[in-house]
Amino acid sequence: MHDLLEIENELGKAIVRQVQINLTPQQEIDLSRMRTVNPEAYDLYLKGRFYWNQGNPGAIKESIAYLQRATAQGPNFALAYVGLADAYNIGNILGVYSPKESLPEAKAAATKALALDPSLAEAHAALGMEKAHYEFDFPGAQKEFLKAIELNPNSAYAHLFYSNCYLAPMGRMSEAISENQRALQLDPLSLPINNFMGMTYMFAGDYEKANQQFLHTIAMDPAFPLAHQYFSLLLSAMGRYEEAIEENEKSELLGGASPENAAAEAAMKMQAFKTGGEQGYWHKNLDLTLRSLMESKGEFVAASEVAAVYALAGEKDEAFQWLDKAYAERDGEDIALLNCDPFFKNLHGDPRFADLLRRLGLTN
Fold it and tell me: How many domains is the chain partitioned into structurally?
C-alpha cells in the first residue's frame, strides 16, 4: 500500500510501451514523478469519495469527516484535498452548508491540492466551481475548467462542472448539453452526471429529453433522492403538478424526512392545487417555504430558493428582494443559474432582472 501510486506509474509506463504511444514532455514528467501515500490516508480518502458519490446531505457530512481525517493522516496527499474541495462544493449545492461556511473551505482545499500538485485536473475543476458559485468570477471559472480538461480530457467531472457551472449560467446551452453528454460518455453509470443531464435538458427548454433522462436515472437507482427532487422540479415546470407532488414526497422520504411529515406536506399541496389550481399550488409552496424558513433554527435556507417560490407565486417585488439577498450572500449554484432557470422566467422582462445579471457577470 505504501507504494500504491508508484505501482500505478509503473503500470502506466508498461502500457505506454505496449501500445507505443508518443508521450508529451509533460506526460513523461507525470509518469516519472515518484509519489507515495499513507495507506490509512488513502483508505480514508476512498471512504470519503464513497459517501460523496451518494449525493445526499447526510452522506456529504460523512464524506467531509473522512476526507478531513485523510488530510490529517496524509498532509501531502493532494487527492484528499481535492476530495474535500468537492465535498464542500456539493455540500453547498445540497444545502448542507451555507456559502460562507463551505465555499471558502472549498477554495482553500483546492488551492492546497494545486500547491501540492499543479497537474491535478480535478483540483482545477473544483476551484472553477468555487469561482462560479461564490466569487461570481465566471472568466476565472472558465479558465480553471478549460485547464482541467486540457490536463485530463477524460475527467468526467471536469466536463460536467464546465457544463453546469459555466456554460449553462452563460446561456450557452448547446455547448452545455455537449459537455454534459461528454461527461456521461466517460462515466455512464454516474448517478449525479445522469441527473445533471436531465437538468441541463430542462435548462435548455427540452422538457421531453429531460423527462426521459430523469426516468432513466431513477431506473438506475430508485433510491437516489436527488433524481426524484429534480424530476419534481421538471414536472412542476411542465405543469404536471400532481406528479410533481408525488415525486417530491419520494425525495423527502429518501432524504430522511419522517413519513408523517412528508405525507402531510404532500396532502396540503395536493389540496391547494385541487382547490386553487396552479396559483393555489404555488402559494401553498410559498406558505410552506416561509414556514420552513421560520422553523429553520439557524439551519441554512438558500435565499434564491425563497426568491424562486415568490417569483412563481407572482410576487415579483418580494422575489427581487430575496434575489438581492442571495447576491449579497454569494448564494451558490441557484443564483449562478439565474439566466437559464425556468422558475425565474416571469422576471425576465423586468429591468431589475437585467441589472442583476449584469452584477453577476452573466451578460455578454
Answer: 2
